Each structure stands twice: as structure tokens, then as C-alpha cells.
Amino acid sequence: MARRHETILTLGSLAEQLGAELIGPRDLAIRQVATLEEAGPDDISFLASRQYRPLLARTRAGAVILGGVDRDATQLPRLVSRHPYALFARVSALLNPGDAIQPGVHPSAVVDPAARVADSSTIGPNAVIGKDAEIGERTVVGPGCVIGCGAAIGDDTLLHANVTVYHDCVVGDRCIVHSGVVIGGDGFGMAEEHGRWIKVPQIGRAIIGDDVEIGANTTIDRGTLGDTIVGNGVKLDNQIQIAHNVLIGEHTAVAACAGFAGSSRIGSRCRIGGAAMIHGHLEICDGVTVAAGTMVRRSIAEPGVYDGFFPALPHRKWMRNLARFNHLDDLAQRVQELEARLAALDGQAASGSPEVSVGGLDDS
Amino acid sequence: MARRHETILTLGSLAEQLGAELIGPRDLAIRQVATLEEAGPDDISFLASRQYRPLLARTRAGAVILGGVDRDATQLPRLVSRHPYALFARVSALLNPGDAIQPGVHPSAVVDPAARVADSSTIGPNAVIGKDAEIGERTVVGPGCVIGCGAAIGDDTLLHANVTVYHDCVVGDRCIVHSGVVIGGDGFGMAEEHGRWIKVPQIGRAIIGDDVEIGANTTIDRGTLGDTIVGNGVKLDNQIQIAHNVLIGEHTAVAACAGFAGSSRIGSRCRIGGAAMIHGHLEICDGVTVAAGTMVRRSIAEPGVYDGFFPALPHRKWMRNLARFNHLDDLAQRVQELEARLAALDGQAASGSPEVSVGGLDDS
Amino acid sequence: MARRHETILTLGSLAEQLGAELIGPRDLAIRQVATLEEAGPDDISFLASRQYRPLLARTRAGAVILGGVDRDATQLPRLVSRHPYALFARVSALLNPGDAIQPGVHPSAVVDPAARVADSSTIGPNAVIGKDAEIGERTVVGPGCVIGCGAAIGDDTLLHANVTVYHDCVVGDRCIVHSGVVIGGDGFGMAEEHGRWIKVPQIGRAIIGDDVEIGANTTIDRGTLGDTIVGNGVKLDNQIQIAHNVLIGEHTAVAACAGFAGSSRIGSRCRIGGAAMIHGHLEICDGVTVAAGTMVRRSIAEPGVYDGFFPALPHRKWMRNLARFNHLDDLAQRVQELEARLAALDGQAASGSPEVSVGGLDDS
Lengths: 364, 364, 364
Fold this sequence. Notes:
Number of strands of chain A: 40
Shape of chain A: flat
Radius of gyration of chain A: 27 Å
Largest sheet of chain A: 11 strands, parallel
Oligomer: homotrimer
Strand content of chain A: 25-35%
Largest interface: B-C, 88 and 86 residues
């Protein structure tokens, strides 16, 4: 673990700053956060789930963070909160404030004279800021980033190294954008003509709201005519693909390797699992959870959990089932036939088997 | 929408330049393309599909682009074409010509003295051009791009910021390559020896044809011995992976997040859906459509549409079906048994159930 | 094929240097490796698999590399080895040594005065080396790479262009890291509080062992508290996603587009297929092969092959089976009912159908 930042805070000051209940000595010095297993007497740990209670009994942590139900599960000095994991996140942020970054433009950066760069911002080595681009207050543009002409980056935003923002795109305030992210590349728009593809100019923008985090190598295309929009508070993991004219609603979280095809509209506070794929031109309402590896082909109008993936099986078992699947329609017809023959045999005309008609080609 | 380019054209000049039929006033001024819903009197819109006819009735657009069958579906000024979406693409390109780019090498770029860079080309800030590399006429190498030794980029090609082209690779004329693309990285070639992996040098190249577009963060590996080839007119979306010695035939289009394993050979004018995965050492003939999220494990010799993905279901329903799938072989055997027992019962020896033998372990 | 490196070796010196058995003239000059089909009299080729024996009969290669069982399958000059493909890899490496690279820091690179950069290393144009970073002996940092503060790169490692290594991360000796790779970005850690996401600081590191190769645009996140670890000898293809606190065991190979969710622990000498997805917080033992496109949701404690993907079918056939799958639970219930009715009919109470109880909602 990297421990370059030596910040020491007392348990009392943590409780006060974060509005948590303190049980134990106010002046206990805390240097770092750590897991229950690895924490030492200078560390504060946390109980994220009841299943880790046995670890709580054995931990060498100096203090722990707990939810209300677990407040008496230990005699250790502790902070109690209704949202213990969120409290842990805040404690960690206080103990790991990051290096102070010097404002200013590195001499190797190339900033167009017509760019508007806040004096309090930091432009890293070899970064390139295009004509008419705007960089907000206290924003950091990392080494090797390229900000296109007319693009606007808000205040207090951090672009890590080697991020690319295309012309005219917008990134809000307090965002964190990781390396290799590409914002505003052309959407995949083509018209077919005589077996060849004519490029449809992508003249919209990509607009990223406030408080958005974007993981490494994620790509967010600009819109064809209107804009691609990533709402406030959205959290995107690594290697996500967001096509042109997609809308991601506020506070939705998306795990790595997921993809959104063109013009899909995702609601607020959704959770999209890793490697999930959302087809284009559909709508997912607020509060939907899509499981990892699941493909969504139709609009979803009801909140809830949606699945569509097969977990691994041992090879032989999988191959057997797969072979059966590949003849599943035959199998269903054989069942239908059996039902008919049995009905004839026992003289009951189709009684008890109204599902015989079920086998149509719908897929819902 | 970004409207930095103020180009105004008359409907008549559009019709003339693009060979479209004009119905309406020649001198109507058109400033921009827009959707039927968002267009205003200065805009030209288009009817892409009959399902949008109701929007056509309500649009405030100054003019519209239509197919022949819809020519009388409105009284608005209009351009009529057999390929209305392609016409729209061309109109948009005329109205959005892009900024004029100054030729020349930016002082911060690092160009090897032995590179051959056309005077009409543009080398952006902090770009790096290696020894013996060639950059063609009017080609733009964006900020932060790295062109390896001996690589060749054709004429009128646009490399957006932060593209990497490895040594000796070739990119054709009139290509568009988006940020984060890596062309010519080593293929994944290793030989096993005593439980360790020995690297197989990747001494082939990646060759990209003319008129190819490559989306952000797509990777195209160089060949092991021969070359990896992306044919003329191929269109690749974002985050596609093309392994060593793959061949992508001309005018094939590939949606985002698809992958091609080593030595796969894809025909011309194929359409590969998003997140589709093509196994290695197989061949797909011309004119094949592979649906999104589909895995191709064997060669395909017949044009047509191939599928292989499961759309999401509500969690409970999916889990029920999944549980059944995991016992599908059992289920099939039970059906077989039922058939046998029923045959015995009604005295018919296996009549009507020749499919009993179907349940082998093939998976075709 | 790129043939800029003109290295000529005799068959005898190859045999000697690599400890292979030589059958044929010691002084035969070999310039390059090539496939059986493409090899000429200056080339050495190899027989990787018996299925290519017909090509062996027709090859124009000057010499070939064979396994012991094939030693008499040709009269051509030949090198014989127990691991012919590994021998081929080594021969190719000798014939294609790569350009000699001049040590030194390019004047356009930005190296922090507090970085420790070995004199024998090469820092490419526009690379950025942060404060307290270390670059080992003979290591090459390609153009446009950004090495964060306190990061350490070992000896004899090659970072191709535009690689990003975040602060405090570690890359071992003799690694090859391809363009666009991001090592040490923040893991996707967030705590929910009142419907919003609070960032959990990611204070661990990413640690890459020795002899690791990492393909283009792969991302490896740093740990939340402890470290993310990629073991010695691991080989990673392109566009792989490795989340925070993952452990990849030694000499495991992972094909392109695979993903590992947080805190998954993968054994040694595993083989993970392309686009495979490994869920978080699970363990895979040594020696497991996960097929391409397979999702692993539970720990695997037995070595072997695990599958979970459906190969493409022609559209109609797939849609029929898919429709049946979507009613698979119904179908299973109908079979159960048939069994019961048949049992009643022929007077046997459930004899022969103990699997009736199998249809629970487990999915193992």
C-alpha cells in the first residue's frame, strides 16, 4: 500500500468532521484505513457486513467503523454510522488527501493563446489545450492530455494522464477522468449506398455532468445531431463504451466493460453490471439493475433486477446441455407430441395441458 | 450541438452538387441538418423510416430529405433520393466541413530527420514521428500521436489525438483513426515450454486499407509472420479487438466491443454486431451478419444472419430457466424415457419419435 | 512482413545456441522465419501440428523445425526439438533481434529532478517521468508514456508508446507493456449514501511481476487498501480489464477482452479465454482453463476446463431455441406432469423417474 501521505487525525476529530457517533477516546491517533485482517493499532478499520464479525473479534485495529446494529459487537474504540461504508470512504479521504498540486501551466504544455485557462488550474507536462477551450478553477489536466478546440472542463475536475477530450465537448465540475479515456470521438454513423458506407457527420457533442467518475480507457462518443449525455453523479468503470446520443441518467453506476449502443436512454440510479450490453434505441427506466454479462434488447419499464447470463459449468456438463439446447425446439415438440398421445391414451382431450400452445416464436 | 462552422447553402446548390431531385424553391437557405423534432426553418431534416411519418407532419424543418416512396408525403421543400440517409450524410458533410487545418509541423512535435513528411500534411503538438516513417499529402497527425519507425500513413488521412501506430505498419488514404487506437501492437503469440510462456516474435505488420474508419481505443495487432489486414472501406467502431493475422474483408462494418481472434478471416460486406466474438482460425464468407453479443466458433460458409445471445429476463424468470438449462440433459433423457414407455404402453414400437437419436453431443 | 533487421545465422549456430538436434548442413544460411507456405530457400519454417504435414511435403523452406515424432517426415535440413513451437519462437527471436536502442533521455521528455533514471535506460520523446519514480537498467520508456510519482519500473522492461503508469505502482523486470495500457487507475469503489455514490479512495497499488507481457489498451486498477497483483510470467492480451485487488497467479495466460472483477483470485498456470468474465470475490485454483466467452460466477476448486457460451446458429434456428428456452421452466413442468400421468396410467408409482425432484431453483 502506498503511504506517502502522512496525515494523522484523532478519532475525535474524525467523528466531529463527519458527524459520526464516537465511542472511545477522542484523542486516539489514526494514521490510515485498513482491512480488519491487516489493520494495526494506528489504523481504523470497518465492518462492511455481518459475515465479517469473526474478523472483528480478532482484528488488531486501533478503531473500527460500524453500523448501528453492530455498535456493541466490539469493545474497540469506534465510530458508529447508519452508512458505515460511506463513513469509511470519507475517513479514508481525510487520511489520504492526495498530494498538493502546484497550479500553473507546465512549460512543455501547448496551450492555444485563445484558450481560457484558470490561473488556479494545473496543466501538466506535454498536455495540449486547443483554441477556445476552457479549463476551470483548480482543475488538473494531467500529462499528455489533449483538450480539443472549444471543449470546456469545469472546476475542481481531475483529468489523469493521457485523456482525450474532443472539440466542443463538455466535462462538468468535480469529475475524475482516468487515463486513456476518450470523450467525444465520432459515433458510428454510416449510411449504406451501393454496398459502401458513407460517413454521417457527427456534429453533436458529448456532455459529461458534475461529479462524474470515468474509468480508464472508457470511450464516450459525441452525438450525431443532438448530444450524448452522462448525467450528474454517474460513475463509470473502465473500458465502458457509450455510443452516440446515449443518455445515462443521474447517479447511475456502470461496471467495467459494459456497452451502450446508440440512442439508448438509461434511467437514474440504475446499476449496470460488468460486460452488460444495452442495445440501441431503447429505454431503461429508473432503478433498474442489469446483471453482469446480460444483454438488454428491449426497453425495460419496470424497476427490478434483470438477468441473462449463463455461469460456467465443467466442460462435459456444459457440452451436454449445449447439445440439448441446440435441439431444444425439437425437444419441446416431442413433449407436445407426448402430451397429445397421452391425452388420447387416457381419454382426456388435452385436459391439464393448456400450455401446449405456448411454443410460439415469441421470445418474451 | 456544436455549431461553430457557419456554412449556408441553398437547397438548389445541395440538389445540384449531390444529384438529388429538388421539389421546392432553389434559393431556400439551409444552415444545418437536424432531426424532424428539433429542426427549425433554417434546417434540413430527413425521413429515415416510414415509422417517423407522424413526425414529418409536425416538423418545423425548412426542408426534408425523402426516399422516392415518400416523395408526396409532405408539401415541404424537399430533396428526393433512392438513398435518403446517404443523401442526408452528404448534405451534413457539406454543411459541416470541419475547420480548415494549417499544414505544417508544430514546433513541439518530434519528427525524426529521416522521416518523410509531406509539406501539405499537419503534424500536431507533441506528436512523434519515427525514423523512416512516411506521412502523406494533406494528412493530419493529431496531438500526442506516435508513429513508429518505418510506418506509412497515406494521403488525406486524419489521425485524431493520441493514436499509436507501431513500426512498419501501414494506414491507407482517406482513413479516419480515432483517439486511443493502437495499430500494430504485438499479437498474443506464445509457445509453452515447461509451464512457462516463450514469446513468439511478431514480425508481421498491420495493414489498414483506404477509406477505413477506426473508432476510439480499438486495437489491431500486427501479424506473427504474415500481416494483419483491414480491407478498403471497412468501418470499425470503438473498442474492437483485432488479433494477429486477421483479415477483415472490404466494406465490412463492425460495431463496438467486438473481437476477432487470431487468423480469423472475415468476408467482404459483412456486418458484425457489437460485442460479437469471432474465434480464431475460421472463415466467414461474404455477406454474413453476426448479431450483437454472438460468439462464432466455426466457419460460416452461407451468407445470412447468425445469432447466439440471450436477451435479459426478469431475475426470477431467468433463474428458473437457467436452473432448468443446467439440467437440460436430464430433461431430454426424461423425455426420451417417456417416449419409450409410452411406445411400450400403446404398443407402437418407437413410432413417431425418430428424434430419439438426436440427443448426441454434437452442437450444430 | 517487415524485414528491416538483416540478421543471418547458420543452421549450425542456431542448433548450438538453442540446444536443438541438427539434421543437415551446419553452414546453411538462414535469414528469416516463415510459414510452410510462404517460406523460401533462405527461410526456416516449422511444423506445428500433424495436420500440416501435406504442407511440409510442398514447402520451399530451406530448413524446418520439427518435433521428435516428425523427425523423419521430411528430407529437408531440420532442427528437432521436444518443443518445436518454442524452438521456433527462440529462432525467430535470434533472427529478429529488434533495433538497437540508444540509451538516454530524449530532450523533449520531462523527467522530474527527483526521479531515478538508470543511465542505461532510454526515455523516449515527450515521455513524462514523475517525482521519485525509478526507471531500471536498460529499460525503454516509449514516446508519450507517463510514469507517475513514486512508480518503479524494473530492468530490461519495454514500455511501448503512450503507456500510463500511475503513482506508486510497480512494474518488474523484463516486462513488455503495449501502447494504451493503463496501470494503477483507481478501482471502482464507491459507497452508497442517500442514493448517491461516495468515492472510496483507492490507496493500494498495482504490482506487476517479472516477465509479464501486457497487451494494448489493457487496464489494471490499483487496490483499494491492499494491492492488485499480476504474478511473474503472466501474459495478458489486449483490452483486458483487471479490477482492484485482483490477484493473477504466475504464468497464467489471458486472451483478449477478458475481465476480472474486484478481489478475484486466479491461480497459477490458468488459461482464461477471450472475453471471459470472472466475477468478483471468488477464487479459481491453479491449472483451470476457462473457455472463451464464459462467465465464472463461483469459485472453481478443481482444475479442468470450464465452459459457458453458446456458439452462433442460423437466425431462425436460434430464435426457435431461444423462444423455447424462454419457456424452459414451463417445459420442464410439463415433462414432470407427463411423468406423473404416465406413472398413474401404467400403475407404476414414479418408478424410473427419480429425477422428478431435480427441478429446483439451484443453478449448479
